[in-house]
Amino acid sequence: LKAFKFSHAGTPVTISCKIEDDHWVLHVVDRGRGITSEDVRRIDAHTQFMRKTYEQQSSGLGLAIASRLAERYRGDLHINSRLNAGTDIYVRLPIPFIDDRKPKGPEISK
Q1: How far is CA 101 from the centre of its chain?
Q2: What is the rounded (10 degree) CA torsion for 85, 78, 108, 46?
Q3: CB atoms < 10 A from the CB of 18, how many?
Q4: CA 29 – CA 42 distance, rounded (Å)
Q5: Is 49 helix (H, G, I), strand (E, B) or coil?
Q6: Which of 79, 81, 107, 87 is nearest to 5 (CA)?
Q7: Helix/strand number for the chain, H first, E second
Q8: Looking at the DSSP assignment, which residues form a beta bridge with residue 19?
């Protein structure tokens, strides 16, 4: 996870998962350098971006790919971020059920 790479030394990265309204909700929180609102819009548009702050760079493809995968499984990815304050990322994925309410695998189109 890039959350570990871009977090300030000694700050925690929290990863949690819970079930909420027939969805799995994965929540990743870091208190690192954050993502600009412009870069968040680019991720939302599924394009590549460059993080230009500090000396480290990232292509941003990981979040764009994660967002597309979430959409593919009828979910979504939401980013709350502030520069130099950190980032919260939420991934919501529906829990697929069959008639007797047991989870089933993902739907794959050909």
Answers
A1: 27
A2: -80
A3: 9
A4: 20
A5: coil
A6: 87
A7: 3, 4
A8: 24
Helix (H, G, I), strand (E, B) or coil at 18: strand
The residues pairing with 97 across neighbouring beta strands, listed in sequence order, are 103
Count of other CB atoms within 10 angstroms of residue 33: 20
Q: Find the distance separating the first CA and the last CA of the chain, reported in whole Å.
A: 30
Task: Indicate if the alpha-carbon torsion angle 96, 102, 106, 110 is positive or negative.
Answer: negative
Which DSSP helix (H) or strand (E) runs through 75?
none
With beta carbons less than 8 A apart as the criterion, state whether 15 and 27 touch: yes
pLDDT of residue 43 exceeding 50: yes
23-30 and 76-82 beta bridge pairing: unpaired
pLDDT in tens, 53-97: 444 455 567 888 888 889 899 999 999 998 888 999 999 999 987
Two tokens at 20?
A: 């909420």
pTM above 0.90, yes or no: no
Give the DSSP H/E element, type plus range, for residue 79.
strand 76-82
